[in-house]
Design goal:
Its main location: cytoplasm. With about 325 residues, this protein is of the alpha/beta class. The chain contains 9 helices and 13 strands. Bound molecules: guanosine-5'-triphosphate and zinc ion (ZN).
């Protein structure tokens, strides 16, 4: 059977691209889709190469953009037969096999928030997504203010790549475009930071498309289940941004430290090793680093605040 990649889904109709011939077809999913759905998360295959097919649970699941599928031609129609195991997936936006998330924060309007940055990073890390930070609207503050922000972000630059842009004049775009090469990218960030403006600046054809859809539906875009991947620099960009609402309810307080790559490294120096949550324990590697100003106090304080918030929620039940 032949293999393809799903680039578009609108009202049950798929657009697939054959991975070898690059031919594009309209396709439907078979009624009884034989989907190989992994019980565990994406890292399952990588970490458990010795697992056999028996360990993989077969359940029904519908294909989404980003999925690799097997398909066949029956009469004149193209039918999706099965989905290959996903590396990862999101529900909002509904995309599978995401290579990276572009996390957009504006310098102002809305104001840059380190609390929100840490919260986004925590959630993206939990979802095992690799993150690229984009600081937008750099034209709206003066050089001195921008340099102050860059200084504060130096610490984060050790953990994630950071790009500074102005989507109106396409400043910073020459380097930014390289990061999309061969990757499936999803944009995330709070409302108003400039995700759509960035996407439209990269993909001028998107402007027209969303307008057409809005007009056809007579309302805002995405009123039906519609998702699409746009080709850009030999990769794809998902048309719908994700993570506009941030929920901490899905965490256990003692687990969140695992989603701080910087804290994880330091926890080798904790007396209680991986049992240490870096708050009240003695001889804690993270708190020692904090005292030496090797971690920004604000990042640590945000961590304690998230921990406390989640713990208080859980204690209620
Ligand atoms: N000066 C300046 N304004 C920008 C820039 N990027 C976006 N804007 C403006 O910021 C406002 C919000 O931009 P959007 O692209 O709609 O933001 P968004 O993140 O898509 O917002 P949601 O759709 O609500 O999630 C618009 O008025 C844009 O024109 C920029 O680089 N510089
Ligand atoms: Zn510790």
């Amino acid at each position: 059977m032949k293999k393809a990649f799903i680039t578009k889904l609108i009202a049950g109709q798929y657009v697939i691209k054959d991975v070898e011939t690059k031919e594009i077809y309209d396709a439907k999913a078979r009624g009884k889709l034989r989907a190989l759905r992994l019980e565990q998360d994406s890292s399952f295959l990588k970490q458990n190469t010795k697992k056999t097919k028996k360990d993989i649970k077969v359940t029904q699941v519908s294909p989404k953009v980003g999925d690799y599928v097997y398909y066949e031609k029956i009469d004149d129609k193209y039918m999706i037969d099965s989905i290959l195991p996903r590396e990862n997936e999101l529900i909002r936006p509904d995309v599978a096999n995401i290579d990276q998330v572009l996390l957009v924060f504006s310098v102002i309007k809305p104001e840059f928030s380190f609390n929100l940055l840490d919260k986004f990073l925590l959630i993206l890390e939990q979802n095992k997504l690799s993150v690229i930070l984009v600081v937008s609207k750099i034209d709206l503050i003066d050089e001195k203010e921008l340099n102050e922000l860059k200084d504060k972000l130096k610490y984060y630059e050790k953990l994630y790549p950071i790009y500074y842009i102005n989507s109106k004049q396409k400043i910073g775009f020459d380097v930014l475009t390289n990061i999309f090469k061969d990757k499936l990218t999803v944009l995330a960030g709070q409302t108003g930071v400039g995700k759509s403006t960035l996407m439209n600046a990269l993909l001028p054809e998107l402007n027209l498309k969303t307008q057409e859809i809005s007009e056809a539906l007579g309302r805002g875009k995405h009123t039906t289940r519609h998702s699409e991947l746009y080709e850009f620099n030999d990769g794809y960009i998902a048309d719908t941004p994700g993570f506009s609402k941030l929920e901490l309810a899905f965490f256990y307080p003692e687990d969140i430290k695992e989603f701080y790559p910087d804290f994880m490294k330091l926890s080798d120096n904790c007396k209680f090793g991986n049992k240490c949550v870096h708050i009240n324990e003695p001889s804690c590697g993270v708190k020692m680093a904090l005292e030496k100003n090797e971690i920004p106090k604000e990042r640590y304080d945000n961590y304690v605040a998230f921990y406390t918030e989640i713990k208080n929620q859980k204690d209620k039940y």
